[in-house]
Amino acid sequence: MTAQTNPMPPLKLNLGCSDRRVSGYLGVDICPGPTVDVTVDLRERWPWIDSSVDEILAFDVIEHLPDKIHTMNELFRVLKPAGKILICVPTTDGPGAFQDPTHVSFWHRRSFLYFEDGNIYRERFAKAYGITARFKVLAERVDGSVDGPKLTITLQKPSVCD
Q: Which domain holds residue 143?
């Protein structure tokens, strides 16, 4: 008789969850709360091991993190090959990016070009800038909100990484 192993359930993170519980996702925030499963300061090295996370939600959180390169590199580091991240961020095309006093980084669709596998900006500047992230863009859209346009972009880590 052979022992059966139970496969590990997918590890899915809801970064900056605040008060929003998403079923099937581990709530991650800097402040403890009823929907927070893990309290983490995302400005530091993230506690998950390399290539251990299946999916990440990052709604209205990356603009609160001061170092774009650190943020994108950590997203890339912790995602499994073929892992996906869904990011929603206010764009600099409207006031929402600038009105919140806790926003410390400012994003536009073109900001992601530096983290896009094969993109001329990434290929030219990644080494000099310390960028290790190299995502494929799966989908993107811009929606209006009372605070201006918000970009929702789905990124995927390549299936095979060097």
A: 12-156
